[in-house]
Amino acid sequence: GARERRRTTKMILKGVLLVELGSIFGACFLFKKNTSQDFRQTMSKKFPFILKVYYKSTEHANVQNQRARSRKVAEQQKLGI
Q: Looking at the record's lineage, which domain of life comes first (predicted)?
């Protein structure tokens, strides 16, 4: 009945809230770790889709040229600059 629907609705909302909180903490973790070029290289090799989503979100948040800066640093490291 109505009580069971209410209970189910609460469980679904708790699940959505947990997923949202996990997403926020994950984004914060990536933002802090992304200062490391080694971390970005590892992410691009193992989880390219996550890095792609990260770059898209930073572009939407008006953090311009993060992807270009990452490439430039990687190229400089390859050249030993």
A: Eukaryota
Q: Do 48 and 74 lie in a common domain? A: yes
Q: pLDDT grade, residue 44 (50/70/90)?
A: confident
pLDDT for 67 equals: 67
d(CA 61, CA 71): 19
φ, ψ for residue 65 (rounded to 5)?
65, 20
- What was the pLDDT predicted at 81? 58
Helix ranges (DSSP H) in the chain? 2-33, 37-46, 48-60, 66-79
User: pLDDT value at position 64?
Assistant: 60
